[in-house]
Write a sequence for this structure.
């Protein structure tokens, strides 16, 4: 058993970590495109009030104005400015992406650690549950939840998507983390800590958890992508966020009939494009991280 | 008893707790979550008398545990109640809706799996080459576009944009319009020109010896299947590529090369073959994706399948129907995952249980 010297990840080293992350991003073309696009969308969401020329529910233009100088991406039936709605729509999209991921992480990771570390009956039970719900269609779940959570008003869709996507991603994190823990708990440094009398909790938090977290990073972007796509799917079925809140999914839903698509293509084109851009940038990031962290590929890569 | 037989047996036995767990989740979602009466939550416009009638038919005034037992029993016996909208047994309606979904899913898989294996193989064999990058962009891109947008785009492109290019020439224009019909599969299948014996219309038309109608149905299925197939292809290509890269580094591949076996044979016969086996497990795991894709595709193309049924049930607040679709989907998903595992075990000789 080789005794590995763990690279410490204390705050002092944060600068070094940032440098490494930055150079990793710069080296990888698709990753930098992804990060750049995601960055723009995040800026859009944060500074929507300054960037958007109009409010997201202001009847500023005429009925179905095609794209022009005043209304870059045209206007809707009610005269809403499509461009402004797109800017504000990024807020909802990002909230949904982040809340889904945080929820799934905060349950999947601890459960995986517990299951992998303690083993026994808990492990078997949790694995069975994870296997059962792993293949559950999250869109279906989101549909049901969206009907029921109406008590929460606007939040209902965010909550429905977050819960539904989490139900599928909790088992995903669970599996990865559990597998990692099974490996790590037999590593030299953990055994050393145990032999020095470290308590279970200390070992879990100080030695196991930090090493496990790295393995979840590659999953996070896909988790976010699925959240955004589930929200879009929910909207397309007419169960999504309703106006006046700006949501790309709703705008696509509103413009989906072939008659409208032919007559007023900008109504579906721009919100659809935004959904694509956000998911695409996240998937690019996920794909690059996957290559970096995927044990099958990276071991031969030697990077 | 061999280890494989035992594994298959265990897996089938495990199906019972799996289905039980999932049906329980559905029950919890539909009956226990806040909102005393699910029918009321769905449709606030119902009168008090209507609500009472519904509650009685669903047994909602019973204790929760009794409801749960009833729900379990009804689920496994497929006694799903009667639809509000049509007053027809939901089981019967679902059987009708099953055919189109089956056709769509089958063709989606038939397009997606070979395409995915092909793309993944090429990408893995030419790692970091321009083909690899192009295929990679495609797989990431197709996953990132909501499938209904793909559907709408295909419809616009093939049913309107391409025919419009040939406006002057009537033969080509109407030929293209017929080849890429913008009307739904429903119109093509419910013409009454052939008896719906098996509910799978394609088979019905063949049984009725109306091959012209078979062809017509196929043209209607083409675009939705393509949309679904591309989604499946993207997911599979990604997995096959990873596996290819792994296998191309293995000793048996180096050995095959050193024996002078042509590079093409090594790559596409040796490595690809081994890279494809795990895909079977993947297909069953991605079945949820397929179902979600089917729901959205059916809605986009107006295909009267399970997804479309669910959509209509949702729109018209038909609570028992929604519940029925959920239960059926959950059971299908469980069975498919077991079938996938078993197939995988049969095909991969290394796996012993």
């Amino acid at each position: 058993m080789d005794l590995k010297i763990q690279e410490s990840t204390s705050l002092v080293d944060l600068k070094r970590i940032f440098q490494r992350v930055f150079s990793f991003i710069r080296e990888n073309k698709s990753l930098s495109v992804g990060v750049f696009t995601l960055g723009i969308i995040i800026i859009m969401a944060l500074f929507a009030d300054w960037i958007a020329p109009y409010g997201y529910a202001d009847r500023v233009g005429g009925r179905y104005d095609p794209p022009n100088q005043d209304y870059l991406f045209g206007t809707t039936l009610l005269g809403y400015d499509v461009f402004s709605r797109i800017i504000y729509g990024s807020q909802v999209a990002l909230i949904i992406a982040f809340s889904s991921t945080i929820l799934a992480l905060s349950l999947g990771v601890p459960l995986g650690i517990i299951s992998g570390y303690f083993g026994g009956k808990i492990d078997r039970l949790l694995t069975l549950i994870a296997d059962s719900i792993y293949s559950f269609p999250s869109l279906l779940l989101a549909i049901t939840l969206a009907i029921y959570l109406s008590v929460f008003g606007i939040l209902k869709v965010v909550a429905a998507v977050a819960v539904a996507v989490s139900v599928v991603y909790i088992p995903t994190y669970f599996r990865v983390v559990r597998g990692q823990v099974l490996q790590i708990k037999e590593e030299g440094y953990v055994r050393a800590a145990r032999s020095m009398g470290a308590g279970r909790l200390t070992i879990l938090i100080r030695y196991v958890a930090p090493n496990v977290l790295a393995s979840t990073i590659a999953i996070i972007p896909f988790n976010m992508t699925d959240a955004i796509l589930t929200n879009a799917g929910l909207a397309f079925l007419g169960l999504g966020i309703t106006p006046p809140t700006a949501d790309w999914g709703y705008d696509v839903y509103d413009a989906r009939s072939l008659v409208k698509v032919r007559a007023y293509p900008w109504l579906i084109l721009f919100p659809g494009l935004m959904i694509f851009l956000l998911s695409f940038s996240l998937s690019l990031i996920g794909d690059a991280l996957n290559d970096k962290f995927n044990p099958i590929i990276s071991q031969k890569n030697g990077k | 008893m061999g280890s494989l037989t035992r594994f298959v047996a265990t897996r089938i036995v495990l199906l019972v707790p799996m289905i039980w767990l999932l049906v329980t989740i559905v029950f919890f979602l539909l009956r226990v979550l806040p909102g005393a009466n699910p029918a009321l939550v769905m449709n606030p416009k119902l009168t008090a008398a209507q609500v009472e009638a519904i509650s009685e038919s669903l047994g909602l005034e019973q204790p929760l545990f009794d409801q749960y037992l009833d729900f379990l029993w009804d689920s496994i016996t497929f006694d799903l109640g009667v639809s509000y909208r049509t007053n027809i047994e939901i089981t019967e309606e679902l059987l009708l809706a099953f055919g189109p979904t089956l056709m769509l899913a089958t063709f989606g898989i038939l397009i997606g799996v070979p395409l995915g294996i092909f793309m993944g193989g090429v990408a893995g064999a030419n790692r970091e080459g321009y083909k690899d990058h192009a295929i990679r962009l495609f797989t990431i891109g197709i996953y990132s576009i909501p499938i209904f947008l793909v559907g709408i785009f295909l419809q616009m492109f093939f049913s309107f944009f391409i025919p419009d290019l040939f406006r002057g020439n009537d033969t080509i224009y109407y030929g293209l319009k017929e080849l890429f019909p913008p009307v739904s599969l429903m119109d093509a299948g419910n013409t009454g020109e052939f008896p719906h014996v098996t509910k799978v219309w394609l088979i019905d038309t063949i049984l009725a010896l109306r091959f012209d109608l078979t062809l017509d149905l196929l043209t209607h299925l083409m675009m939705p299947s393509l949309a679904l197939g591309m989604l499946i292809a993207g997911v599979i290509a990604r997995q096959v590529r990873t596996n290819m890269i792994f296998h191309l580094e293995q000793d048996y591949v180096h050995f095959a090369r050193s024996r002078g076996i042509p590079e093409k044979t090594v790559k596409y016969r040796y490595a690809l073959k081994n890279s494809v086996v795990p895909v079977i497990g993947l297909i069953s795991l991605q079945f949820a994706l397929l179902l979600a894709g089917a729901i959205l595709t059916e809605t986009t193309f107006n295909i009267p399948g399970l997804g479309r049924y669910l959509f209509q049930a949702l729109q018209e607040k038909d609570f028992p129907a929604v519940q029925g679709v959920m239960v059926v989907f959950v059971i299908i998903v469980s069975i498919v995952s077991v079938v996938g595992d078993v197939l995988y075990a049969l095909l991969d000789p290394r796996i012993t249980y």
Residues 32-300 of chain A form a domain with the MetI-like fold fold (CATH 1.10.3720.10). The first helix of chain A runs from residue 14 to 27.
